[in-house]
Amino acid sequence: MNRIEVEDLNVYFDDAHILKDINIKIPKNTVTALIGPSGCGKSTFIRTLNRMNDVIPTFRRDGVVYLDGEDIYDPKIDVVDLRKKIGMVFQKPNPFPKSIFDNVAYGLRVHGITDKDTVQERVEESLKSAALWDEVKDKLDKSAMGLSGGQQQRLCIARTIAIKPEVILMDEPCSALDPISTTKIEDLIHKLKNDFTIIIVTHNMQQATRVSKHTSFFLHGEIVESNLTERLFLEPEDKRTEDYITGRFG
Amino acid sequence: MSFRIISPKNAQKIMKSIFWASGILTIIILIVIIGYIILKGMPVISLEFLLADPIDSGRAGGIAPMIVSSIYVTLIAGIVAAPLGVGAAVYLSEYAGESRLVKLIRFGAETLAAIPSIVFGLFGLSFFVIFLGMGWSLLSGGLVLALMALPTIFQVAEVSIESVPRSYREGSLALGANKWETVYRVVLPAAIPGITTGVILGMARAISEAAAILFVVGSALAMPASIFDPGRPLPLHLFVMATEGISLDNAYGTAAVLVIMLLVITVLTNTFVERYRKKMMGR
After folding, report:
1. Domains of chain A
2. Which helix (H) or strand (E) holds A228?
């Protein structure tokens, strides 16, 4: 079953045609990696999925994005509801300058969950799921800004899963992290894919092979090739994919 | 072949010394002025000077009504100008985008900041005192000072709100918060240190002002019973005492009290801001 289906999506900023005729199906509870060189439109694409591009005044699009069969750009769709279903983790860890606890509780409070015990429970549960609980359980009231980069990124993941989304978008979540922190995040992705549909943008092809089941290769705003990750890397069908994964450009 | 009068190494040394000297000179000027006023003022400052009413136009007695007047007008200025200034800053940096209205508001604030304080006073006289019928009162004075503090508060608040990283806003929006929740729960708390500094700078400007309130507070010597009474804040008292040759010693005493009040406010605010920032940033 597919969680997300994108049909003939085109995205423009002013007159620049950023994404061209994107068609992709994202199956439920799997990891899909989006690879491609800088400026190929991967980030713009995932930001279209939770409507983060809406805040950019020059953004225009046509085509349809379905989440569980519902068009997310339908005027009846509430963006707040949508973003509750589709969470996002950013390239640079961006915890709020608040306590560790308040960071994780943030989304809950925004969505009207204020009962103390419930919040407490969900915060603990989310930090455990994000493999961060043991490192922070004694300093939940300390500022999240005091954590290391890798811990901050896991905190951002905890903050996202606290509101129980169906999909988690990750925009190069390890690009600002050291190798050990990267391994921890990748382990976490393996664990999370049982409960969430994950779409990860990555620069790092090894990472794509390590974490994902499906991979799509983006180039100049188009999807050149989508396939099972193994197939895409072992027997690319398109010459451009082959050139990219063998390091001839990018 | 290149020809230099001064070698790069020496140029580096010379420039460093010039900057060092500028820094030191700035501190020395500050210390000399504050030190001089406190030294000249200290001899007349006593418990009586702080707690008694003035006698014989201020030749003797104390300055209690002036201290109270100063506190009243400054608080009125802060209470009125802080929400207005911060509100305008939030509107401009979070909601307005880059429209003509925005440019106009920003230009307005800059111009407002450049208007001479005596002109504010004249406006206050005709608008608050006469047109709105508030009379010569601490309220009229506080409102004029609010107008003067407004551009400072607005400008500093706008800069500190805009310096909140975009990534905080995106993080909040991505969690399903709407714009207002993002502003209220993330942006404003992160900007609090800067906003507080702006509010205090604005209020410091208000508490130090004599010219702006000259025509509007009434210059009464008696202890004001409420904000509807006339009063005489410290800078105005100091001005009258010095220009009318009533008592230069007591003028210095008044100046010293004013300077000490300002120092206390500044130090307390800085301590609060530093503590808040440390807690927020986990250091």
Report:
1. 2-96+166-245 (3.40.50.300)
2. strand A222-228
